[in-house]
């Protein structure tokens, strides 16, 4: 298979001054794309700002013969980041919503500031960038978005209620973008990566980190955002050479007649069925998938009290 290329395309990578974002930026810069290297340059907790992080990456791309421009705005001003792409390159094709911070603290000690900062950077930041890129994507009938979730959002993680909430929000956000964008050839997918970075270096042992290079997340992202890629609205876990898709599973469930006989006792009597993940389990991917069950319930006789 020939090498995937992105010649003539413009890629915006948020949080591209380090970690995963830097790996994405260097890759796309080496495969013909013009890259907007966004990074606020603060600490991993979201304090401070510096132009250095983005500048180093831009210089590296340029030194290797690629095209790149820096942007130092926070993703909460995503319109300015997209404007950098338009002003410098006249278009935007691919948006990698990657910037992120952590404010880990047990829920008992969580402050409004810890909560708001995390929701702002991850949720509002991804929204602002995608919202600003959207009219360009629609007009050119082409766009690719990657949003960044986390296992912490999918499964929960001690000390990360704020981060977990923000990261699962990326799944719902992506699913709806995928549905709204499909007819304009705008594809959105979401990844839950695992990689060695300043975010993980204090919580994982060095030998594990050695096998979790950010570079091992890049190939999946490269596949998903390529112009020939068809994937849309998918959720992936990726890291250390492993890639897997995730999906929702609904148990075959308990179906009761919704009338006066639908009591707590009627539910408890058949509680096992509520959590039965057997061969009749479903894999729903739309809100209307529920309607068939509702119709079946309406046709049932009264529940056995
Ligand atoms: P990282 O700290 O190395 O990189 C994040 C970058 O985002 C930093 O360079 C930082 O300066 C930048 N940034 C932070 N706030 C910003 C803002 N408001 N505006 C612009 N830039 C900002 O961390 P990483 O591990 O490379 O994380 C990248 C993404 O992957 C994050 O969204 C993170 O939550 C997610 N993630 C990472 C892992 C992992 O194992 N590393 C796991 C799950 C999710």
TrEMBL record:
Major subcellular location class: other
GO biological process, alphabetically ordered: fatty acid beta-oxidation
Keywords: Fatty acid metabolism, Isomerase, Lipid metabolism, Lyase, Multifunctional enzyme, NADP, Oxidoreductase, Peroxisome, Repeat
Keyword set includes DNA repair: no
UniProt subcellular location: Peroxisome
GO cellular component: peroxisome
GO function terms (MF aspect): 3-hydroxyacyl-CoA dehydratase activity; isomerase activity; oxidoreductase activity
Task of the protein: Second trifunctional enzyme acting on the beta-oxidation pathway for fatty acids, possessing hydratase-dehydrogenase-epimerase activities. Converts trans-2-enoyl-CoA via D-3-hydroxyacyl-CoA to 3-ketoacyl-CoA.
Family: Belongs to the short-chain dehydrogenases/reductases (SDR) family.
Record's subunit section: Monomer.
Entry protein name: Peroxisomal hydratase-dehydrogenase-epimerase
Organism: Glarea lozoyensis (strain ATCC 20868 / MF5171)
Upper taxonomic lineage: Eukaryota, Fungi, Dikarya, Ascomycota, Pezizomycotina
Range of the intact protein held here: 1 to 305 of 905
